[in-house]
Amino acid sequence: MAKLTIGVIGAGMIGRRHLRTIPQHPDFALVGIADTNTKMVSEEYPDAAVFADYRDLLTRAKPAVVIIASPNQVHAEIGIACARLGIHFLIEKPVTDTLEAASGLIEEVRKAGVHTLVGHHRRHHEQVKAVRAILQGRQLGTIVGVSAIWAVHKPDSYFAAGRWRAEPGGGPILINLIHEIDFLRFTLGEIAAVSAIASNRHRGFPVEDTAAAILQFESGAIGTMLLSDCAVSPWTMEQGLGESVDFPVSDQSSYRFIGRKGAIEFPTLVQWTQAGDVQDWNQAIEAQRLPTGRVDPFMAQLDHLRDVVRGLVPSLQDVEDGARTLAATLAVTEEASTSFLKKRSKKLLSMAAEPNE
Ligand SMILES: NC(=O)c1ccc[n+]([C@@H]2O[C@H](COP(=O)([O-])OP(=O)(O)OC[C@H]3O[C@@H](n4cnc5c(N)ncnc54)[C@H](O)[C@@H]3O)[C@@H](O)[C@H]2O)c1
Q: How many CB atoms within 10 Å of residue 13?
């Protein structure tokens, strides 16, 4: 079968990762890259056709499919342009920057009937598929809840390289928690309600450095999530999975799922169960590390994109599903911002109560 022609829009941090993976894939042929910074891109990819305007990539190189890896604010505009030209696309997360933009994109995708895939690449890990099957199966019984941590120390250079990361709209809720929310939706189902508290105490940025969220799932399960980008720990999914050379492997679990008949740690897949049919806190509990495969999730994501574009399988996450992950994440941001406001107003009230004479 002929290779699928593919273009990449945005050759920054994640765009480069896609551009490293595409040449290794037997079923895709790169036909061009669009990036506003053509000088940098032409130097880095001297053999590629480089376009400053993504519309030229779409109309002149005519790819069958594109990867949209531009900043969030232009995701919707570019996705709509692709849909109108009948071009299928993989769009990086978050699907768009706002729910309004997502709804405009969804409408155009529906009209055009193009295939879409959102770049929550973790869905393609073997360990993620394995834990999902276990949580949706019978061996742990009904899932009661989940407790999770995502905590690392981002260096100062990370914020110096992108000041937006220290401003509202940046921050670990929208940058990092969105992946965790997507993972939880994928494994436990839709989130029905959230409550959250955020703090900027340690870095003092306008945006949070630490947050905690309580989640309730439509299934009835409840969960807690502690998130920080200013604390040293081995507990992030990135470190546990060792999914990138940028983050050293910890081989530690950052998730604990508990069910009526047993529990499982993730991503190590250590499962805890008791023998027999009666559950009893006086009875011994045994651990077993379940075997699992390992894949490069970006390569597996391309395999899936190929099959989706060829109409062989439904998309694991189309733009509508991506919008549901965005909505749940924005709900955490909103709840957390209320907690900020409460603190601010408390400070103002105490200042008013002690007037300077
Ligand atoms: N899946 C993941 O794990 C993951 C990881 C990082 C980033 N992302 C997402 O990928 C997207 C890009 O993030 P990044 O960290 O690579 O950003 P980045 O700033 O490193 O790269 C963005 C690139 O897009 C280019 N660009 C800007 N406006 C453009 C336009 N109108 N048309 C074409 N190119 C344009 C910039 O010149 C830059 O090269 C974001 O949506 C981000 O949330 C996903």
A: 11
Q: Is 240 in the pocket of ligand 1 (CB under 6 A)?
A: no
Asked if 108 and 240 sit in the same domain, the reply is: no
Interval 225-268: pLDDT, tens: 999 999 999 999 999 998 877 888 999 999 999 999 999 999 99
pLDDT digits 0-9 by tens, 29-60: 999 999 999 999 999 999 999 999 999 999 99
Q: Do 18 and 128 have their domain in common?
A: no
| Burial letters 317-331, b for 16+ CB under 10 A, else e | bbbbbbbbbbebbbb
Q: What are phi and psi of 53, to 5 degrees?
A: -110, 125
Among protein residues, the one with the nearest Cα to ligand 1's atom 5 is 14
Three-state secondary-structure class, residue 49: coil
Report the 10 Å Cβ neighbour count for 316.
18
Which tokens hold the place of 201?
A: 């105490």
Residue ending a domain, choose from 81, 97, 114: 114
Distance between CA atoms of 334 and 213, rounded to whole angstroms? 11
Q: Can you give the residue range of the structural domain that contains 266?
A: 123-295+330-336
- The CATH number of residue 129's host domain is 3.30.360.10
Please report whether residue 82 resides in a domain. yes
Pocket test for ligand 1, best of 17, 19, 35, 180 (most atoms within 8 A of CB): 35
> Of 84, 114, 144, which closes a domain?
114
